Task: structure prediction
Amino acid sequence: MNAGIPDSVSAVRARIAEIKRAFDQPEAGAGGFAACLRRACAPATPDDPEIAGAIAECAERYNLDPALLRAVIHSESGFNRSAVSPKGAQGLMQLMPGTAAGLGVSDPFDVRQNIAGGGAYLRQQLDRFGRLDLALAAYNAGPGAVARYNGIPPFQETQNYVASVIASYEAARGAQE
Result:
């Protein structure tokens, strides 16, 4: 048996114990590592102050209805800050890494960056296609697919996505009135 293996196991066990201690001894002020980790892993809602603030800022900056941003986030990630799709889309608004980088998003799991990037991208699609349904289709399937099919692409996922976001958006707008 390799003599280094027991040392490696001991080192791993020591590191695990160190992490456990960090959970048990929160730092003064911000609540420490454990509190921060619990907040980051907790399911979020549209009422989460950080998310609500980022939505409000983004809506104002890009002239978008906050209810629309909430509907997109709900459909994209269910308000899961750490969501990653099977295709690699990340964060609340499910930005693909290349798209995120092109929008200046350096950390797609940062709530403010992700929502600002997603809002900017949605505004680009609205400006390009001029209709909400086509902008949402472009957000989901890409603007090239919308242009290629001269409308909502015949992909079931995209058609369901557009219908779902619009239904959530309309329901939220109706509730506001």
